[in-house]
Amino acid sequence: MSYQRAFSLQGVTKEFPGVRALDKASLDVEVGEVHGLVGENGAGKSTVVKVLAGVYQPDAGLVTIGGETLSPITPDTVHAAGVRFVHQELHLVPHFTVAESVFLGQERSGRLGLNTKAMREETEAFLHDMLGVDMPSSRLIRDLTTAERKLVQIARALIDEAAKVVVFDEPTAPLASDEIETVMSAIRRLTEQDIAILYVSHYLSEITDICDRVTVFRQGKTVGVFDTITDQSGRDLVYAMVGRDIADMFPVKGDRVAGPGLEVVGLSDGRAFANISLHVEKGEILGIAGLIGSGREELIDTIYGLRKAQTGTFQLEGEPLAIKSAAQAVDAGIVLVPRDRRHDGLVLPMTMAENVTLATLDQNTSLGLENRRVARERTEAQITALDIRPPDPDVVTRLLSGGNQQKVVLARWMVTSARVFIFDDPTVGVDVGAKSEIYQLIDDLSAGGACVIVSSSDPVELQGICDRIVIMMRGDIIGELQTEDLSVDELVSAITGARDIKNLTDAD
Amino acid sequence: MPINPVRHRRISEIIGYLPLIIFAGVLLYIGLSAPNFLTFRNLELIVMQSLPVVLVCAGLGVVVMAGGDDVVSGGIDLSIPATAVLSAGIIAVMLTQGWPLIVCGIVAFFACIIVGLLNAALVTRIGMTPLLTTLAMFVAVVGVNNVITSSRRINVDHPLIVALRAQDVLGIPLGIVVVVVVLAVIYFVTHQTRWGLHLQAAGGSRDAAEISGLPVRRLFGQSFVLAAFTGFICGFFVLARGSGSSPGVQDNLMLEMVLATFLGAAFSARRVVTMWGAVLGAVLVAAISIGFKSMGVNVFWTGLIKGSLIVVVVAFAALARRGR
Amino acid sequence: METSTSTNMIWVLLQRFGFLLVFAAFFGLFAVWNPVFLQGGNLLNVIEGSAVLMIIALGMTLIVATGGIDLSVGIALDFGAAFAVVALKSYGMDWFGAACAGLIGGSIVGLFNAILVIGLRVSPFLATLSTFFIGSSVQRIFTNGGGPISHRRMPEEFRNLALGDIYGVPTEAVIATVLVVLYFLVLERSIWGRRIHAMGMQRSAAIVAGIRVNRILILCFIVASMTCAAGGLIAAANIRMFTPLSGFSYLLDAIAAVFVGAALHPRGRPNVLGTVAGVLFLGMVANGLNLMGLNFNTKDALQGIILVSALALAVAQQRARNPLVS
Fold first, then answer.
1. How far apart are CA B249 and CA A499, in angstroms?
2. Which domain holds residue B89?
3. Looking at residue C179, what is its pLDDT?
């Protein structure tokens, strides 16, 4: 089959205040291929997807679909041109049936109201013929597994049979590892239909598995197009994604104080994970790796007292410790920089000063009344120390960029005398510059004698900053790796279970 | 540690129906203690008694469907009972002035729809929270109705209104037939039409609806208008039940509506507000009220019983959710 | 373009100062309609007449600031009045003992709410609604159907809670003012207030920040209901009796005052000064409409319509000023 151009982006530039998200980026996808798009967080992948969706207007450049240049680029013209999206989030109505969800917004009408029979039959036929699954169309979304919901989402995008280009945005992100194959085989079947597929993902193992060609983005630029992909391409892709300056992103480790730190023994929550034991020394940075569903997030929440533990004990610097609530954890000097900072990290409608001093109100008080001058001075000191922008203690935190919001959360804990810092996906949604600053801050904390735990979904980050990484899978710690001499690829294959950790350590 | 998900689900499903089981237990207890309670005649009386609440509950069910079931920020319309009383007041006053029923009905209809449109505008255009908007609207509409009726009781003996209470169709009271038809229409509109599905999607997952390009805010606004329409219909039943319009009906109607709707949510294993749940809730609340009365329990206790019911049922619902 | 900029100006002005303008417009209207409105005695009437509502609205402000709502404020008021009157009448306590009994009676309501909300995880709306049902029923049972308990020979000191004066200022106005100042200091200036606001705005973030939200919530429910009970003491002293279920009439006005006040705040927070403005606005409208000599029903209806409009205006004004907030 001769390839023909399904769509292309040429020299697309998109600027946001302070950031050039796309810098003359280009991308060509041909009919009948699965084209991978990879890059680090902040490389411009999601911006490209939004430009293609008509959500963002590019400042410069051309978008061509099926040989025709699209102008204007709006959600409607994009849809009319046959571009469909399968979004990362599973936005489906829980109490709708499969058929209702597939046809939402594009219902078939009959003479009397809706033609539910036709919709049901079409849905089942589509799922069977195109995606290769049999699913009763009357089942409710909330009773489906995550993978089945993903398939419903795919059917939703394709049911009108007008799709020429389908964009999959992190399609496997919410899936457990054994569910991934279901979705992958469905995607493979689609390529037989003369549809071009753009596959955006973090997971290099999937990219090398399913993609025919791959485009790599770095800092808003197209830095490489790989025309042949084999199982061995992973290393080259990482190199292209991260560039030469990978080492520069991460701080150089200096001398450390040592001593016993936090020790967790036999922790279970009765659901997501069981019998977890781990320890962090003073001055050490421990990484926790694991896919979604591995119990990693639940473990962090439980250590911090946000979830109830069924069994398990804690020791801090040799002293036994009870953690039943976040307040107890904070009192003991254990603090959390949560993954969802907009929801759990900051009180968004409050100002920077109010957020920074929220955990240390007791220290800025006379007779119970708040001493606003002291609070302000402390905030200003943190603004200087962490280089928070804008340097205005009275700015409402909702208006700050992701990186600066993260620094405000960090600033709040810096003013306490915390001994254990837990970071949960600390750089999600943070641009590259601020990322490296945050890594430096984390390293400074550890150099100052704090125990640091970094739980992350980003293998590059874990490899770059941690001294030691424990890997979780299905609620269990399946192994532990020293980061010295560990490559990102080895780490990824250990996290995804592609390689046994024993072999990995033996090989070293 | 092995966790058996199947067994776990089965237990939580049983816990899920616990509120309904408790309720059935209470009714059975009443039935055993008051022998007349479980007669057909009495059950018919219970259903007749609950008709106005059933109608406003259906309206509230639609608003919750479109706005989500968060009480404060999601969909709620506390003004429906006031709309119902306004409808009743207008019809009663105009009938005494000698207008034909159809004209009274048309005027009441437009008055009610205006209330619905105002709610919709305040919520979707100005951005007030539904709880606050409709609570304030409740006060305003009741005030207006008191001006219209001069806060007097007005007897209505129009044959059609009386028929709603006293007439039978094939052995079934006309009132029940009419309400069943209205509910069937609302059900058809909200479940079998494109508009209805969009409405449900808007409340079920705002993100999903927006991604599918649905006009979420407009749908939410429209639900208030439909709710006001149920208030309009309810006006006739308020007149029929009380043989006319009397001041103060709205307070009790509002409390019963909220009680029944959220009890209805607790009855469903999934804890979602549905129209049928609300209707079931309304009938069961009437059953409990009449039941305790026929057991000879002093009416002073009804509030205590209803309040405790909310607590028990909702708390069990919360416990079941935690157990899942 | 000339005209559009000038209408823009008017629009901007309305958005900025809309509520203030409406306040002033009503003030002017009432003053022109009936000059009595402006007399010092009458303005004092407005304040005195708003004292109980002010106290209830303060309690409501506290609960709304925690992110909830309290439909049982009226019950707390009734309980305060009932406990105090019974303490005076049946147990022969002195005024101070009776006042304490009233406050304790009110705090039972708050404790009950706290148990439902925190212990049983019922949402504040439904929890306080049940408290309302149960509390009303308890009053009916206790008074055998809702008849008032009157106490003609009420001690002078207790009566003075409502009818006395301190240096010429009516006691109830003094009590309300003291409570306003205390609430302002606690809610807007103290570290507890900061914690309360934080948990009200974003509970999960407050928990992660190590704030003991449950403990704060229990205290808030109890303090709010004791505050309402204080309102009940004044109400009972005023008419020398306990009238069951009389607290309900304050509920909607209290909610309205709090939300008007929140909408007046630059960032939409429920706040004490805003609540004071809301209460005074409602008090002024009620007093002004009275002086217009309207019949009771018309006055009621107008008050309702003004309430809806005021809320709409206040919310619209807040949106216009700060489109990014919520």
1. 72
2. 50-249
3. 97
Collect all residues with Cβ–Cβ distance below 8 Å to B101 and sequence separation of at least 6: B91, B95, B158, B160, B161
Task: Evaluate whether residue C107 is within a structural domain.
Answer: yes
Looking at the structure of chain B, the number of domains it has is 1
Is B92 a member of any domain? yes
Burial of A30 by CB count in 10 Å (0-12 exposed, 13-18 middle, 19+ buried)? middle
Which A positions 270-309 lie with beta carbon below 8 A of chain B? 270-271, 274-275
Give residues 211 to 270 of B whose Cβ lies within 8 Å of C.
255, 258-259, 262
Is position B15 within any domain? no
**Cβ contact A449:A443 at 8 Å:** no
Residue C249 within any structural domain of the chain: yes
Each residue's pLDDT expressed in tens, for chain C with a length of 326 residues: 344 556 666 666 666 666 777 888 888 888 888 888 888 788 888 888 899 999 999 999 999 999 989 999 999 999 999 999 999 999 988 999 999 999 999 999 999 999 999 988 888 888 998 899 899 889 988 888 878 898 888 888 898 888 888 888 889 999 999 999 999 999 999 999 999 999 999 999 999 999 999 999 999 999 999 999 999 999 999 988 999 888 888 998 899 899 888 888 878 889 999 999 999 999 998 888 888 888 888 888 898 898 888 888 888 877 776 654 43
Q: How far apart are CA A298 and CA A307, in angstroms?
A: 8
Alpha helices in B121-215, H assignment, sequence order: 130-149, 159-166, 174-191, 194-204, 206-211
- Residue B122 domain-assigned (yes or no): yes
Q: Which domains does chain A have, with CATH numbers?
A: 5-248 (3.40.50.300), 255-333+418-507 (3.40.50.300), 351-416 (no CATH)
Report yes or no on C152 lying in a domain: yes
Report the alpha-carbon distance of residue A108 to residue A117 in Å, rounded: 10
* Structural domain of C93: 19-320
Give the burial class of B102: count Cβ atoms within 10 A of its Cβ; 0-12 exposed, 13-18 middle, 19 or more buried. Answer: exposed
User: Does B192 contact A114 at a Cβ distance shorter than 8 Å?
Assistant: yes
Chains linked to C by 3 or more Cβ pairs within 8 Å: A, B
| H or E element in which residue A21 lies | strand A19-30
Any idea what the CATH number is for the domain that residue C158 is in? 1.10.3470
Nearest by CB to C208, which of A345, A361, A399?
A345
